């Protein structure tokens, strides 16, 4: 899910939003039960943003479940630098105890998040504020003018098909917004530099895995949108993931799709911890390409309504149909993105030509006999009747701001409401002879 708190829950739990029911940044749509569970057994440190609603009124009240202490309120300090200094202090603490207990450190600076300004009428999102030492950087940078940037003839659906084209004033504003994001990111670069220096200083670098990633992408002008996130398109869901550590091949690239639910299983796998039964994700094959089954699909989902735009011209971007389910499928010779919206509109993109729009074991669930393991195999004509007539379709009763199970479908935990063995027996009985003959 391309939004900050929601994606962090999926990272910490290894579970999709429809299983955690954390589908919004505010109640009543779920809560994070115990953020420490995926990394138990380690000295665990978390620095930076966790969830919303921490304020100067509640900063010294109960800390989050699973924590044994927290600091929340540092008026007058630049957040990214504060996060860096706290992280370096925790690294020293971890290094002092590493011979008796391994450590896990999660560093989550707010930058380059927009500045959240409270007003009498709610909050206003303004461009991020860089550290003073970086305020002069990138004076000529502009948003890359890709095919999806402020298109003359948009091809999107749902609320996006009615977005007006951005005028030059708005585009100039978004370019400056982009420069402010780059400047704010420069302080995040400082965090990376100083963490590596600290690991080297404490003789931990060669025995520590370092992962660099983020919670969501960001659009600015693409698809005629104001600054913001939450969409199913490439700008919001294609995020960086880099890892360095023992046994990681230098310069290796994983070319199949992964997402936030795969992060906790990957960390468990690297640490030699048995995977939890409730994980929706699977370990990324970052050390041994053959160790884990290669999955070709991931799902992207979101439930949302109302204020989606950020910045001066995004404050009035009110929509009530930003709820969708999307799937990304990548394999040999194909790279597809399909989405189904709460308006029951649908779209399909060939990502080889449309760049900019871009369950744990789906094929085993759909074809329990095990003879279909990829989209290419499923597209064989002998399965046409099965998919056209027998397959329940994704649908929504209406657009709602959270995961309300009665408002969407299909809701089955196994093949059409049957156990895997019952479904497999139906195939073998001959109800779908072409599937196994």
TrEMBL record:
It comes from the Eukaryota. Residues 3-273 form the Sulfatase N-terminal domain. Gene3D superfamilies: Alkaline Phosphatase, subunit A. InterPro entries: Alkaline_phosphatase_core_sf (IPR017850), Sulfatase_N (IPR000917). Pfam families: Sulfatase. GO terms for molecular function: glycosaminoglycan binding; N-acetylglucosamine-6-sulfatase activity. Belongs to the sulfatase family. This is Sulfatase N-terminal domain-containing protein. It comes from Fusarium austroamericanum.
């Amino acid at each position: 899910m391309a939004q900050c708190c929601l994606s962090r829950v999926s990272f910490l739990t290894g579970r999709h939003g429809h299983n955690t029911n954390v589908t919004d940044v505010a109640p009543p749509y779920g809560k994070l039960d115990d953020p420490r569970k995926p990394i138990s057994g380690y000295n665990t440190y978390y620095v930076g943003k966790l969830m919303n609603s921490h304020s100067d009124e509640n900063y010294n009240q109960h800390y989050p479940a699973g924590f044994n202490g927290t600091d929340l309120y540092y008026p007058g300090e630049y957040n990214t630098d504060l996060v860096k200094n706290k992280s370096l202090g925790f690294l020293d603490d971890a290094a002092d105890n590493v011979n008796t207990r391994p450590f896990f450190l999660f560093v989550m600076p707010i930058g380059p998040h927009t500045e959240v300004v409270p007003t009498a009428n709610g909050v206003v999102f303004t461009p991020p504020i860089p550290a003073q030492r970086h305020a002069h950087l990138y004076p000529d940078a502009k948003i890359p003018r890709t095919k999806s940037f402020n298109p003359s003839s948009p091809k999107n659906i749902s609320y996006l098909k009615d977005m007006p084209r951005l005028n030059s004033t708005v585009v100039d504003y978004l370019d400056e917004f982009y420069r402010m994001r780059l400047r704010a990111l420069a302080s995040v670069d400082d965090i990376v530099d100083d963490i590596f220096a600290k690991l080297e200083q404490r003789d931990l670098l060669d025995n520590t895995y370092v992962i660099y990633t983020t919670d969501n992408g960001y659009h600015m002008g693409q698809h005629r949108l104001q600054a913001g996130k939450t969409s199913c398109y490439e700008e919001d869901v294609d995020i960086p993931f880099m890892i360095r550590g023992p046994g990681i091949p230098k310069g290796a690239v994983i070319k199949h799709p992964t997402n936030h639910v795969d992060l906790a299983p990957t960390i468990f796998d690297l640490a030699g911890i048995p995977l939890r039964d409730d994980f929706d994700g699977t370990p990324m094959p970052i050390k041994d390409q053959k160790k884990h089954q290669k999955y070709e699909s991931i799902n992207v989902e979101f439930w949302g309504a109302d204020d989606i735009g950020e910045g001066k011209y995004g404050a009035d971007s009110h929509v009530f149909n930003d709820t969708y389910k999307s799937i990304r499928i990548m394999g040999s010779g194909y790279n597809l993105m399909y989405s189904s919206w709460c308006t029951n509109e649908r779209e399909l993109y060939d990502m080889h030509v449309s760049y900019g729009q871009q369950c744990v074991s789906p094929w085993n669930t759909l074809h329990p006999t095990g003879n279909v393991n990829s989209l290419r195999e499923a597209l064989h004509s002998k399965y046409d009747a099965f998919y056209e007539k027998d397959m329940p379709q994704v649908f929504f009763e209406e657009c709602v701001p959270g995961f309300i199970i009665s408002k969407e479908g299909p809701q089955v935990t196994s093949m059409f409401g049957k156990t895997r063995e019952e479904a497999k027996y139906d195939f073998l009985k001959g109800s779908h002879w072409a599937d196994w003959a």
